[in-house]
Design brief:
Length: 402
């Protein structure tokens, strides 16, 4: 089963703007996107402004006292990155919907509900904002199932939300207008046919729905049961990717197993970097325990890394530096700040014949020396080694000493 977590932050835009501009604190201002209010300050809320209110109606309500700020996603880049980076610590698949909402794929976690609870708790500690969240097998259903996260439950360490594990039962009393995968005209026709609730449409036979809706009949049949799967895209961080290794149903505490897992991660990452022709400037390692909690470390490097051997050494050193108090269930490595590899010629125009290679080199040398001077290029065979270096080389070759 898929465990897709949807998170929506309440008051995100107003809080971010107040952090950026202290003059806005205590004032009545709203944030709008086109003609719809998407966030309100406490001062505006006290005067009756609400999220989802039409902009025209809000202007009439607040009059001269109100400030109306159009939402520009670029204004919230730093605030958005802070909470999405935290989401990316626990999942290699994070798909932002807006600066204040995102999907997080927890399907590969052994205990996804515990990990979701830990993530929500950390987000609340970071942002001090109210949140709504839902978890379900499909993205649209997770969004539909979202509820406000109980702060008391977070403080007590109790999972604040429950996963939708029986979508068909969950949707029985849901109006068909709220079934997102269905087009508006399909929803309207369902109502005209007497299917006002998803539960009523669930009773309809697939053949009947296909007669009523043609090729859309199967989509209707799947949607009212919570189907129509769409994967969460790995869109955050924008310049990076993650790979993970899980240890199955039980946690482990064996350094040899950890070393093997880290080597596998290094191998996967090196192959991916080679495929993308990229190097990683930063690496983050996250280790999960059997309670869904995790510890992580992130390091940036002056020289970009790509080779399997180099990555393996880095991951092992980072792992040894983590303070682990419980057995491990899962290890995730993220490779960030990707940069293009320097281009270089791997062969002399693909020539395999020694005479052809020699002739090609001599032609290239003549061309370079004619424009840059004879001393600009020196052949390795023309370099004369000191007698002492020759003796040491012969000695090392004879006895194997180095």
């Amino acid at each position: 089963m898929h465990y897709f977590l949807f998170i929506e932050l309440e008051g995100f835009y107003a809080n971010a703007l107040e952090e950026q501009n202290r003059d806005l604190r205590g004032t009545a201002f709203v944030v709008h996107s086109e003609d719809l209010i998407i966030d309100v300050s406490p001062g505006a809320e006290d005067r009756g402004a609400e999220r989802g209110m039409p902009l025209k109606e809000c202007r009439a309500l607040l009059r001269e006292e109100g400030k109306f700020i159009e939402m520009d996603p670029d204004d919230f880049d730093a605030n958005t990155a802070a909470w999405l980076d935290l989401c990316a610590e626990c999942s290699g698949r994070v798909e932002p919907c807006s600066p204040a909402s995102a999907f997080v794929d927890l399907s590969q976690h052994p205990h996804p509900l515990d990990t979701a609870a830990e993530l929500l708790q950390r987000l609340h500690g970071l942002l001090h904002l109210n949140m709504a969240a839902g978890i379900a097998p499909t993205k649209w259903l997770a969004k539909l199932a979202r509820i406000r996260v109980d702060e008391e439950a977070l403080a007590l360490g109790v999972p604040p939300i429950e996963a939708v594990v029986q979508p068909e039962r969950f949707l029985q009393s849901v109006p068909v207008e709220m079934i997102e995968p269905l087009e508006p005209q399909i929803r309207e026709r369902l109502i005209l046919l007497g299917y006002r609730l998803a539960g009523q449409a669930q009773k309809a036979d697939l053949n009947l729905l296909c007669k009523q809706f043609g090729q859309k009949g199967l989509t209707v049949w799947q949607s009212v049961r919570g189907g129509v799967h769409e994967p969460i895209k790995a869109e955050w961080p924008t310049e990076g990717f993650s790979r993970a290794v899980a240890f199955g149903a039980s946690a482990v505490d064996n350094r040899l197993l950890f070393e093997h897992a880290l080597d596998r991660l290094a191998q996967k990452a090196s192959a991916e970097l080679s495929l993308r022709a990229k190097n990683a400037q930063s690496v983050r390692l996250t280790v999960f325990d059997e309670d869904g909690k995790w510890v992580s470390d992130q390091r940036a490097f002056v020289k970009p890394v790509q080779t399997q051997k180099h990555l393996s050494v880095i991951l092992n050193r980072m792992f040894d530096g983590l303070e682990l108090t419980q057995a491990v269930m899962r290890i995730q490595a993220s490779f960030l700040d990707l940069r293009d590899q320097g281009a270089y010629q791997q062969s002399l125009e693909g020539r395999t014949n020694k005479e052809e290679r020699t002739a090609s080199v001599e032609t290239a040398l003549k061309s370079v020396r004619s424009s840059q001077g004879r001393a600009s290029v020196q052949m390795g065979s023309d370099i004369v080694l000191p007698r002492r270096e020759k003796v040491l080389r012969a000695w090392r070759h004879a006895i194997g000493w180095s």
